[in-house]
Design brief:
It is globular and about 75 Å long. It has four domains: 93 residues, Phosphorylase Kinase, domain 1 (2-Layer Sandwich), CATH 3.30.200.20; 132 residues, Transferase(Phosphotransferase), domain 1 (Orthogonal Bundle), CATH 1.10.510; 121 residues, 2-Layer Sandwich (Phosphorylase Kinase, domain 1); 86 residues, Transferase(Phosphotransferase), domain 1 (Orthogonal Bundle). A hairpin with a 2-residue loop joins β17 and β18. The strands form six sheets. A seven-stranded antiparallel beta sheet has the order 12-13-17-18-16-15-14. The chain has a six-stranded antiparallel beta barrel with strand order 1-2-3-4-6-5. It is an alpha+beta fold and 458 residues long. The chain contains 13 helices and 23 strands. α3 runs parallel beside α5. 30% of the residues are buried.
Length: 458
């Protein structure tokens, strides 16, 4: 593991053997085996260093990055200034660009704000900038909010290595496809906000937003949503800006970085059973043990899937551990804006190649189980009706994405101030075939409705 700060020496190319010294202060992004991005100082100037690790493709990616920065500037698109590039002492290629002090990515700002109006306000200038790029023949192959930097009133673009440059403006069809990638971060049913943001893009391109454009946009949003979910789930299993993967001879784990910030993940892993023994027991069964505890100042729920014999462990090693499946299920629901406790980590305890035990860590959500809520004498009939309506809307949303919970009962729905929250995702299934999903969904939703109507206070 890299210890910060450290000195990085880069021999400039082209140059007369001139070597530059940079002080790397920390990681900005890591893609293991591919590239590392550092926050650094060069001659007392704040810079960003991108180091490419793959020996076969490193030089090609470096040229794309460098040439992309120069082409963006030549076409009048705002981007950080390219400073120099070269090779590190261990033979890797690196490019150094200016760091825009006080700036933030639109992704960070978008996810920090809870106000829907402010979210739309952030997207509008991004769409105008996107229209400007398209008008100048610039197309981003990896378009997302993290590639836009907000510096006061100015928007800059990042990651030019993933851009294509054309002699002519980007076509209407391609423009709509790119626009769909941006607006899918808004709720799909918020048509007013989506139309407002898209209208700004079309106005900037000098076009009129037609009904056929909206239809095409919706199709593209659905397609990008499926593709984005698949890519996002793969990303959840490796080290990234958001997550940290830990691998030893005895353990494999992935942590959300905010959960272990300022603490040692391996320490949590090694003492997790002791922490659980001192926590508040929520369930003590043969298959799993659930407790609530506090670690690193965070109130969490840990679910341990117990060892039940070698055959059982081999089977779950082949099928993948239940903690890993629960982590991915929760991540999927989060991407689809379906309420469930935020996953914070999953841990697998290994014996050789076999997963012996596994653990899923989620945030603790304060709320009442649905059956307790419906029997609460302090809850008005209007509140009960509103809650059951929101529960049914949640189930309809699951059906829309071909998801069945698998163990839908009152105790697996928490009623919070923000609405119903789905818990216990162990039996969740994502169906590939539409009619199977519809059939399963109708069956368990029908049973759930009957259980609601049978409630004495419904």
């Amino acid at each position: 593991m890299v210890t910060f700060p450290f000195e990085l020496l880069i021999e400039r190319v082209p140059s007369e053997k001139q070597t530059e010294s940079l002080l790397c202060k920390g990681h900005l992004r890591v893609i293991p085996g591919r590239r590392e991005v550092y926050d650094a100082l060069w001659n007392d100037r704040s810079v960003v260093v991108k180091v490419f690790s793959r020996k076969i493709s490193a030089r090609r990616h470096l040229r794309r990055e460098w040439d992309g920065l120069r082409l963006l500037q030549s076409r009048g698109v705002n981007t950080p200034d390219p400073l120099f590039y070269g090779q590190t002492q261990d033979g890797r290629w690196a490019v150094v660009v200016e760091k825009i002090a006080g700036s933030s990515t639109v992704w960070d700002l978008f996810h920090k704000t809870q106000d829907p109006v402010k979210k739309v306000g952030l997207l509008i200038p991004v769409c105008k900038e996107l229209a400007k790029q398209h008008g100048k023949g610039v197309l981003q192959k990896d378009l997302h909010l993290g590639n836009f930097l907000l510096d006061g009133e100015r928007i800059l673009v990042l990651d030019p290595g993933q851009m294509r440059f054309f002699a002519q403006p980007v076509t209407r069809k391609r423009g709509i496809s790119q626009l769909a990638l941006l607006v899918r971060c808004l709720p799909a049913d918020d048509r007013e906000s989506i139309s407002k943001v898209c209208g700004e893009y079309f106005e900037a391109r000098g076009w009129r937003f037609r009904k056929s454009d909206e239809t095409s946009l919706r199709k593209q949003m659905t397609m990008h949503g499926k593709r984005g979910t698949r890519r996002g789930l793969k990303k959840c299993l490796r080290t990234s800006k958001r997550n940290l993967r830990v691998k030893t001879d005895r353990y494999l784990a992935v942590f959300e970085r905010s959960f272990c910030l300022g603490a040692e993940p391996l320490g949590f892993i090694e003492q997790i059973d002791a922490l659980m023994d001192g926590g508040e027991v929520l369930k003590d069964g043969n298959t799993c043990y659930v407790c609530r505890l506090t670690w690193n100042g965070k109130d969490v729920v840990v679910k341990r899937y117990n060892h039940k014999g070698v055959v059982h462990s081999v089977r779950h090693t082949i099928k993948r551990s239940r903690a890993r499946q629960g982590w991915l299920h929760a991540q999927r629901l989060g991407m689809l804006h379906i309420a469930t406790p935020r996953p914070l980590a999953y841990i697998e305890q290994l014996k050789g190649l076999i997963v012996w035990k596994s653990y899923l860590v989620t945030e603790h959500v304060e709320g009442q189980k649905l059956d307790c809520f419906l029997r609460d004498e302090n809850i008005s009939q209007e509140q009960r009706s509103d809650t059951t309506r929101r529960v049914m809307e949640l189930l309809e949303k699951l059906g829309k994405y071909r998801i069945t919970h698998g163990d839908l009962k009152h105790s697996n729905l928490l009623i919070t101030e923000d609405g119903p929250v789905l818990i216990d995702l162990d039996a969740m299934v994502v169906h590939k075939i539409g009619w199977i999903s519809a059939w399963k969904g109708r069956t368990y939703v029908s049973r759930f409705k009957e259980s609601l109507e049978a409630s004495p206070v419904y």
